[in-house]
Design goal:
Elements (H helix, E strand, L loop, with lengths): L2 H15 L1 H15 L2 E13 L2 E10 H13 L4 E2 L4 H12 L6 E7 L2 E7 L6 H10 L1 H4 L19
Parallel strand pairs: 1-4, 3-5
Antiparallel strand pairs: 1-2, 4-5
């Protein structure tokens, strides 16, 4: 297997393994900021009782362009080699259906990958419901700023 296939499969496995958390964060972000993208970094995981957790943020549409520009300017992030990708990501964010789809930027190793997740086996609202039903299980491993499922607050970056 080539390194590209290994890396691609790793991304797919990561998304599949963390779909509930990704969908939960996408829905909480949507409830607070309407449109935006989930940004997840695997570069500095936190080890806890429930295993590894990763930094995950929802970046609202109003802050997404400045965020992407700053991220592109960072010397240690080789994200989306062509500047036109920012316009493409913003267009996707402007047109995706937050009830059934997720826009994800996954930072790993020395770069980041853009994912437009469609035809998911579980929708973001369903992810939110599942995480809330089992909050005690997810709370230690969910890296969100909402505090709990009882009171959703804006996520901060």
């Amino acid at each position: 297997m080539s390194e590209i296939n290994d890396r691609s499969n790793w991304h797919q496995d990561f998304i599949a393994s963390n779909l509930l958390v990704i969908g939960y964060n996408a829905w909480v972000g949507h409830l607070n900021q309407k449109r935006g993208a989930i940004v997840c970094s695997t570069n500095s995981p936190t080890l806890g009782v429930s295993g590894e957790s990763f930094k995950t943020h929802f970046v609202g549409r109003s802050r997404l362009a400045p965020f992407l520009n700053a991220w592109l300017a960072a010397s240690d992030t080789a994200i989306l080699h062509h500047h036109f990708m920012i316009d493409h990501i913003l267009e996707v964010v402007d047109n995706y259906d937050p009830t059934t789809e997720v826009v994800l930027l996954l930072e790993s190793f020395d770069g980041a990958t853009f994912f437009y997740l469609k035809n998911l086996p579980i929708t973001p609202p369903q992810c939110y419901e599942q995480v809330c039903k089992t909050w005690d299980e997810f709370q230690p491993g969910v890296s969100v700023n909402s505090g709990s499922c009882d009171q959703v607050q804006p996520s901060m970056m």
